[in-house]
Amino acid sequence: MNRYNLLIIFHVEGQESIIPVLWQVSTESSPVRIFSNQIEELRIEIEQTVQGKSLKDKLKLPVILDQWPASHFVHECFGHTSEADNYMEYACVNGYSLGYRWSDYKFNVYDDPTLIGHKAYYGIDDEGEKSFRTQIIKEGIWSDLLHSSETKKKLQAKGSCNGRKVSYDDIILPRMSITYMDKGNENINDLISKIEYGLFCKGSWGGGSIGTKFVIRPSYGIIIKNGSLSNLIIRRFDIKGCKFEAANNIVGSSNELRIFNPVFGCDKNNQNNLSVTQGAPHIYFRELNIYPI
Fold first, then answer.
1. Consecutive sets of 10 residues in the chain, 293 residues long: mean pLDDT of each?
2. What is the DSSP code string of 106-171?
3. Phi, psi of 89 (to 5 degrees)
4. Which residue among 9, 101, 183, 252 is least enclosed by CB atoms within 10 Å?
């Protein structure tokens, strides 16, 4: 079946500068219909972007990530760190191994290439392993890894179906497929109501992962005051820090899971643009570090 990739960048005149607003989709159905269904959501983002002002100073405060930036957090922090070669390279040597409790909050993370219709769906991996779902975090505890046959042998593990490569001549690496954090049981408005002063981050320009460090770049953030969204909007900031410290600050998630199929794929070890899919509910953090850019 054909897959359509559509990426649109709007250049919006804001209070301080011309601001890009990104919309993208990778789908087997009509991208025009999806765009039409999301036009109101996009209109709101454009209006809020126009109202936003650039962050001037570093902040450390409670944060709720909307599903799109939350899915990047899941991808960068849980997905990459659970790829078995990365696990051996920088997790174990820093004292983090299977059985580690990421957070007292009991959340679950899966990698599941069997979900038909998504960009990273496959029936078998590049080593001929039949695909199946792997639970990498169970009730907040690190429970499994994503393997190629090489890492399976090195760690004497039961393995997974994540041996992947971008092109024919590339070596096979353990790579994510459809990676998502499962939904929680709270309404997003209930999560917001718990915060006296914090930030609700929406939209995303992507993220990155280097060792135990991560960065994600939301499109903008709405200041939360006294349990409600205010009309104060900030933009031009990164959320970054230690993956393990950030995850330890997870204290809640919403009951609304969304799955995203980015137009551009994942880059790793000079194998770039590998098809991936990512998902998350809203994720509530006790605190995160916010840096101006």
1. 88 83 89 89 86 93 98 98 98 97 99 97 98 99 98 96 96 98 98 99 94 96 98 96 99 98 95 97 99 96
2. ---EEE-TT-TTSTT--SB-TTSPBP--EEEEETTEE---B--HHHHHHHT----S-EE-SSTTSP
3. -75, -45
4. 9
For the chain, what are the domain ranges? 1-51, 53-69+183-292, 73-181
pLDDT value for 100? 99
Q: Check: pTM over 0.90? Answer yes or no.
A: yes
- Give the three-state DSSP class for 76: helix
How many Å apart are CA 10 and CA 13, to the nearest integer? 10
**What is the residue type of 36?**
S
Q: How far apart are CA 104 and CA 64, in angstroms?
A: 17
Calpha distance 85→16 (Å, rounded): 44
| Residue 192 DSSP SS3 | helix
Alpha-carbon torsion (63, 46, 23, 209), positive or negative: negative
Listed in order, strand segments (DSSP E) in 14-124 are 18-27, 53-54, 59-65, 109-111
Query: What contacts 250, CB < 8 A, 6 or more positions away?
Result: 102, 103, 105, 107, 283, 284, 285, 286
Residue 10 has what DSSP assignment?
E
